[in-house]
Design goal:
The protein is mainly α. It is built from eight helices and four strands, in the order H-H-E-E-H-H-E-H-E-H-H-H. Helix 1 packs across helix 4 and helix 5 (113-121) packs parallel to helix 7 (145-158). The chain starts with a helix and ends in a 13-residue tail after the last helix.
Length: 185
């Protein structure tokens, strides 16, 4: 049932948001010269997939988890995209393809060994990763791998159609901040 909703909502989102996606893409061309960001992430059953987002950092920024990235690498337009969560919109394509779900554990990087091990222990890789979920609306990010894996596991065990819609609605209404880049302090 969840996959059915994923397909309907991602397809509808891509169609109706296409004018906005085009505007962000064109603005991103002027901002960084390369508006889309692609990165290999860990998917369901630990299979790799290519995650697509709008670029929020300079092109030459190291490919690390957001909480390890230097905040000064984020462009002004990128800050706007992150604050409004519009940088996540291209992931609707990942959802439509079946790499991701709208709701699920945020996909980690293969070099995040502590998170990967914690998620293995908590059996998190049995589901598709998602754009949002329980951890995201509660501001639990990848800087606390054990807590994140525990929260992901709880979400997976308790996931229902009601909670699926609840997490999406809370995200759309602005609950949660996502992974923050480290500051220059």
């Amino acid at each position: 049932m969840i996959r059915f909703f994923d397909i309907i909502f991602s397809l509808t989102g891509l169609i109706f948001l296409s004018p906005l996606l085009i505007i962000i893409f064109i603005t991103g061309l002027f901002d960084t010269g390369s508006p889309l960001f692609r990165q290999e992430r860990i998917g369901r059953n630990e299979k790799p997939f290519t995650l697509v987002k709008f670029r929020t950092m300079r092109k030459d920024t190291a490919s690390v988890a957001s909480h390890l990235a230097d905040a000064s690498a984020i462009t002004s337009f990128g800050q706007f995209l992150r604050k409004t969560k519009l940088d996540e919109l291209p992931q609707l394509w990942n959802v439509l393809k079946g790499d991701m779900s709208l709701v699920g554990p945020r996909p980690g990087l293969f070099n995040q060994l502590e998170l990967k091990d914690a998620r293995k222990r908590h059996n998190v890789f049995v589901v598709r990763p998602g754009i949002t979920g329980l951890a995201q609306i509660n501001n639990i990010d990848m800087s606390t791998p054990e807590l994140l894996a525990e929260t992901d596991s709880k979400m997976i065990k308790d996931l229902s159609v009601f909670s699926y819609f609840k997490y999406i609605l809370m995200t759309v209404l602005g609950k949660g901040q996502g992974d923050a880049a480290k500051s220059d302090t």
